[in-house]
Specification:
Layout (H helix, E strand, L loop, with lengths): L1 H11 L9 E2 L3 H8 L4 E3 L4 E5 L4 E6 L2 E10 L2 E8 L2 E13 L2 E5 H4 L3 E6 L1
């Protein structure tokens, strides 16, 4: 049930007005955008720290999120757990517009979620 709530919430969080999304194609740019900042969605009390050493830590809706990530062939690839439930490995297209990062699953062919940099 948690996965459904988070998946629906993250998908709904992306229905913003037209934006000027620019692809993030390299790890260095990705890390510079994250430098000292969290990824957040206030509505779901979601806050994630994505660290340069490949770790993901945070929480959403009262449950902890942990995981690992790497940059592979221009994509952000991650595997996570939310409240002890696995979120399978997936490589995602990353795009930026101001202080928003949009992650689109399946190398840009799947669902997307926009998270604010704070």
């Amino acid at each position: 049930m948690k996965h459904l709530v988070l998946a629906l919430g993250l998908t709904c969080a992306t229905t913003a007005a037209a934006a000027d999304w620019q692809p993030v194609s390299d790890e260095g740019t990705f890390l510079s955008l994250l430098d000292g900042r969290q990824l957040t969605i206030r509505l779901y009390n979601l806050a994630l720290n994505v660290t340069p050493n490949g770790q993901i830590a945070g929480g959403a809706l009262g449950w902890d999120i942990t995981g690992t990530w790497s940059w592979e062939d221009g994509y952000f690839c991650r595997e996570m757990e939310w409240g002890g439930d696995p979120i399978p490995y997936n490589c995602q297209l990353v795009e930026v517009d101001g202080d928003l990062l949009r992650f689109t699953t399946d190398q840009g062919a799947g669902d997307s979620a926009s998270l604010r940099l704070r």
